[in-house]
Structures
1.
Amino acid sequence: MKCFKDFILNILDIFFLIKKNIRNLLSIKSSFQLRVLIYHDVKSDIQIKLFHNQILSLKKEYVFISPFEFEKLLKKKNKPNKKYILLTFDDGFKSNRKIAEEILNKLNIKALFFIISDFISKPLKSNAYEKIINNIYPNGPRKEELSKPMDYDDIKFLLTSGHQIGCHTLSHKKLSSLENFNDLKSEIISSKIDLENNFGIKIKHFAFPFGTYESINHDSIQVLNQYYEYIFSGLRGNNKRVTKLIYRDAVNPEMKIIRLKSFLNGNADFFYKRKFRILKSYFN
């Protein structure tokens, strides 16, 4: 299965290069693109360097925008023929502050950080940490995945630096697996209340754990619809139209730049459109 997937992705990469060369040859201008990237725990020196190189490469073709600019652009009727990127980070690992401090702030890029509210400041060897890290990595975390979460001062630093935060549930449970409605509401609503009270801000962005079609359902979307203005998925796509449900592209620092640009060019979007339409219908 993995070999077949790799084969398809390689075909898409080749298709992207052919399409790009044709567009350059014919001097075809870019159409409007509004993509959102998901990163997670970018922590090793090698990963940080690779991440930095990715951002510098993308800056040559894309305009990086803040969460506020993203909202404005999404609602704009006459969209410019430019390519835009919003950066997001999920889970709230300690490395997120380092990335913001050492790279994003220096490049004047403002990102959106989705925080697991019960994860904040949890000691590595505590039961509370173990519970949440196992929710993040259901197959069990590898040793290198046992990373510290941000503490309250780290998140305050992000906010004072001009970044924004959003909710990523209370403890990173898969929402579609919660049969008890009170548990569902707790994961969705209690996290929002905690973050708003602790940091004195209004939270309007939510990213559901795992981001897949299978990880969310009608009941959870109905609750989310009442409490958040924007709900971020992990389904790839171009955010052309105003909608509460947001497409996002999952990437990692090790991803080759050709593969990353192939995804951003929309070469894999058709795999996700049908599922995205079904999720959108749950809002009605």
Note: The chain has two domains: 1-28, 31-281.
2.
Amino acid sequence: MARLGEILRAQRERKGILLEGAADDTRIREKFLHALEQGDYNSLPGAVYTKGFLRNYTEYLDLDPEELVALYNEERGVVAEPPRAFRPMRPIMRRNLILTPAVLVPAFVLAGVALFAGYLYYQFTVFALPPRMEVFDPPTDAITQASDYLVKGRTEPDGRVTVRVFPGPETFSDVRPAADGSFSVRVPLRPGANHVEVEVLDHAGKVSRQTRSIMQELQPTAADAGPQLIVEQPANGGTFTNTPVTVSGRASRVATITVNGAAVPIAADGRFTVTVNFTAGQQSIRVVARNATGGEVTELRTVSVAYSAAFVTVNVRSGSAWILATVDGSQVPNTNRVFPEGQVLTFTGRQVTVRTGNGAATHLTFNGQDLGAMGAPGVVAERSFGNP
């Protein structure tokens, strides 16, 4: 194994990072990271790409990029190009313009610098930008009564398209676009919500991804018209930092909607929205719609919740309350006054202090954890929370 590969592998293992996790974090394909750690340079792309991979990977591992790029050049036997020599040129007289070496040499140098900068910019854009992809059918989330749907889109002609349909999942892999980049895949649908994920992988290992929700609506009979439910937020697999999770969507032919067992109000047009506080970690959201005859449909979402500061939610219930809040030593504007019943306030910072004149009416949630009321009715109470 090459010395460069040993350094990379040892640093990664020292930090407790799996090769698969490093590939996800750096957006560099796992096989390229494996080739770097094994010194298998023949399995890597061109030198420009490889040095870009190496710089990103070394920075990710907290190593010195310049030192390891130099070691890469040494192991590959890359030597610096000898300086170019310019031979003197005879002056050329043409329409009173004298072309001398003093004029031509700087012009050639500037032209060479411009061409080289253009080449580097082209290589950078090709390396850094994800492949272009557009899903134009369906253009947004859709509802259909058909048992399948022809998903259409356009991407890079040399891209490799994969379509997954959930629940299932059913996977349609290695779909090759036409010469103009267009592609189409007919996917089967199940009654209810179908989550369609379209992904394209280019030759450099970069990925673009788009999702659609397609509701298969069966033609209802007079005796049985089941509920319909589309959950628009949150996206499955989403990450939320220092904020509650908003669950929203629309439904039809329903009597009740619950989110993790709690009833949610439904507007006249069938839309609903609710915010949910979660503690840190991976959390599950279960949305259930029921109609008057007992028909039921369920949507599941999984999200990740994290807190990098003190996140405090204040709910005023069962009466009004005077509230004063300070964040990092400064009074929060528009506090130090009486808030009516039903008011919801949120505060985020390294240090959050909440003071109330009615402990029983002031309910707190800290970083997703329900702490209940601050005290007894009419009692002044104060709580402080620090950065976790």
Note: The CA atoms of residues 326 and 353 lie 5 Å apart.
